[in-house]
Amino acid sequence: MQITDEKFFKNRREFIKLGAMASLTAITAKAKALGLNSDDSLKQVLQSQAINNTNKDITDFKDATTYVNFYEFSTNKSVAAKQANSLDTSNWSVEVGGLCDTPMKLSYDDLLKFKLYKRVYRFRCVEAWSMVVPWVGFELKQLIELSRPKSDAKYIKFTTLYDPNKFPDQASSFPAITYPYVEGLRLDEAMHPLTLIALGMYDKPLLGANGAPVRLVVPWKYGFKSIKSIVKIEFTSEQPRTTWQSLAPHEYGFYANVNPDVAHPRWSQAKERVLGSFSRANTLLFNGYDEVAPLYAGMDLRIEY
Amino acid sequence: MKKAFCVALLIALGLSAYEIFSSPDPLKAIYIHTGFYSFGFCVLSVLLAWLKRRVWARRVGLAGLAFGLLHLLNFIILDKYFDIYDILKQISTSPFIQLGLGTFMLLLGAGALSFRTSMRYKKTRSALVYMALALGGIHIFLGVKIPELIEYICLGFGLGACFVKFILILLKNKNRKFKKHQI
Q: Which of A298, B23, B125, B176 stands the most exposed, by the fewest C-beta atoms within 10 Å?
């Protein structure tokens, strides 16, 4: 993991103090002046080399971009991947609001102004398959600091675009799941430096199949928490009801931390199938990201799954 | 005809092998292919039995059992690496695995009763196949995060065929009793 430069850290604090009084344009201008605004363009970061300390090989690009769950298109992975890659993401914007002092509407270009990183993360699906992916994006923490959540904001809710013209299953009379897709995190989880808002993967901007143009990546949680094609981010005081929690509360909890000791009611989570091979690997608690363990200190992970 | 059936089986296996080796998730692909082939052959076997093609019903049913065995071997060898503790834990805790194992045991029983020497157990064999279809349909349905049309079809056919068979047996027994009473 890359450690934030001290200069950036100090500058960010100074910058945050100014956040409330400024409009977004002013904020981004100030951010640029402070060096928060990365000099690296998305293209440069995409082409940079990331350190892979996952102890696993990076998954083949084709496998990672064709073996996806995107129910808005289809429940069939390869069909979803094919259809999703033609998703029109022009004029995309992300609305940030709810319990915060600086609500804002960010265009895709605005999102590119955050300090971008390339990070190689393990990714574990609740269906017991896993992959290793180099993501390009920014720490969600940056966006949260910019929007200045109010003191009663305890959670953060994410919503995928609802547009039946773009997502065939949303227009279906028998949709696979309820739409729009909603996910949520506790604010401290969202503030964790591992939590990423991804805009690209490998050396390319995100493909439709992988949640273009902007998605969440929370590497210590099952993949369904890493919501795709985000249009809305809201700060809330109550725990948001997520899509899978609503559909099958006995199978999918709010936290959905990767945990080999808590089996899915229908299958074991102790091992995982590594994409692109016949091999199986032991699943690690928090997907091997032990640094997040303090977030759940004192919690019974068998109950709060 | 026999040769054509063997060729069809080999083609099915070849196509499956191609799909499995080109899949990003080959273990899952083996489960899907062997599972659906096993269920499909059992359905075909039942249909052939309805059409009074008993010899072919038996052959196709045995092909279903063979694919079921491949499905189970995938679980034991490739998925669990012969980890007996893990296998037993799964069997004892997961209804999904219990259903799958139950389906295989029923098919195995039906297979054992399909030899010429055990022809007198025709009704028992038939009942085992129908029960296997019902359990197999539920097993397929529970195996996915979100069921697609094909999973609903398998569930519907498995439970439907079992239910119809049960009703037919009841009616037959009722008629028999009624006839006895009349005599």
A: A298
* Alpha-carbon span A87 to A166, nearest angstrom: 7
Does the pLDDT value for residue A283 go beyond 90?
A: yes
Q: What helix, strand, coil percent values describe chain B, rounded to 5?
A: 85, 0, 15
Cα(A304)–Cα(B4) distance, integer angstroms: 56
Q: What tokens appear for A117 in the block?
A: 């990183």
Q: What is the DSSP string of A113-175?
A: TS--EEEEEEEE-TTSEEEEEEEEEEEHHHHHHHH-B-TT--EEEEEE---TTT-HHHH-SS-
Residue A94: helix, strand or coil by DSSP?
Answer: strand
Q: What is the mean pLDDT of chain B?
A: 91
Check CB contact of A75 with chain B, cutoff 8 Å: yes
Cα–Cα distance for residue pair B52/A170, rounded to 1 Å: 46
Q: How far is CA A43 from CA A145, A205, A246, B1, B136, in A?
A: 25, 8, 39, 62, 50
Instruction: Please work out, in degrees rounded to the nearest 5, the angle formed at the alpha carbon of residue B21 by the alpha carbons of A263 and B97.
Output: 25
Burial of A284 per CB tally in 10 Å (0-12, 13-18, 19+): middle
Asked if A86 and A208 touch (Cβ cutoff 8 Å), the reply is yes
Q: Indicate the residue type of A174.
A: F
Nearest to B33, CA basis, from B143, B159, B147, B161: B143
State chain A's mean pLDDT as an integer: 89
**Predicted-complex ipTM score:** 0.83
Q: Is A7 on the interface with B (CB under 8 A)?
A: no
Contact at 8 Å (CB) between B130 and B40? no
- Tell me the per-residue pLDDT of A121-168, one tens digit each, with 9 for 90 and over: 999 999 999 999 999 999 999 999 999 999 999 999 999 999 999 999
Site of tokens 């009841």: B170
In chain B, which residues have their Cβ closer than 8 Å to the Cβ of A265? Answer: 94-95
Residue B27 corresponds to which tokens in the numbers above? 């273990």
- Minimal Cβ distance to A66: which of B24, B90, B94: B24
